[in-house]
């Protein structure tokens, strides 16, 4: 057997500075597509950070708080102590329901503070929307909870009526702002 011919070297499989031409073009296209996919994923992130059970809990607690609060105002001022009568028997029951909704709402708000607010803050910069209503939502939630605390523990009789109306106004504004903030998700028929 004669001496074997020296093997022809094939080009190294990886070139750190790029092969130029078609391969570079393909790599660049791939990288662009990956960036676009990542950006699209990030834009959808807030939808993913609000789990279905969280959205349902927020809606259910908002409905319970609004209904029990509004019913209490109607009964209290039309039939009960606010109309100069004896307190109506429904008044304490409506406040018990309202209290149950309030505890659940605090849990739901805490669940949102854990992940959604941070993710929403980052994504809202890119989306160019929802940051204002997000800030309004956090502020109104804090003020509503503060007014509820004052109403429960520090309400002198002379101030109670006014404080109750202020609290109810803040609560109604909170519910309205929440619906506005989540309108795109609530109006879409997409599956979660
Ligand atoms: C500074 C605070 C916040 C920011 C920057 C923020 C940002 C965002 C953004 C960017 C979206 C996506 C909207 C879209 O796709 O149109 C969103 C959706 C949403 N946010 Fe917020 N958010 C904040 C606070 C909150 C709070 C405190 C709550 C509730 C207590 C909340 C509840 C929701 C809900 C329910 C959605 C709809 C998404 C879904 O249901 O999947 N957000 N938010
Ligand atoms: C995060 C949301 C809310 C929390 C934590 C909360 C909590 C409370 C608490 C602790 C009380 C005092 C209960 C008592 O004295 O026995 C109260 C009273 C009341 N709340 Fe709310 N509430 C919220 C939202 C709302 C909303 C959305 C409304 C809308 C109508 C509302 C209307 C009222 C009314 C009318 C009262 C009775 C006021 C009075 O005694 O003069 N609340 N709430």
UniProtKB/TrEMBL annotation:
Region Disordered: start and end of each range?
1-20
**Locations of Basic residues compositional bias?**
1-17
The record lists the membrane-crossing segments as: 56-79, 99-121, 133-155, 161-182
Q: Does the keyword Cell cycle apply?
A: no
Entry keywords, A to Z: Membrane, Transmembrane, Transmembrane helix
Query: What name has this protein been given in UniProt?
Result: DUF4405 domain-containing protein
Q: Which organism is it from?
A: Azohydromonas lata
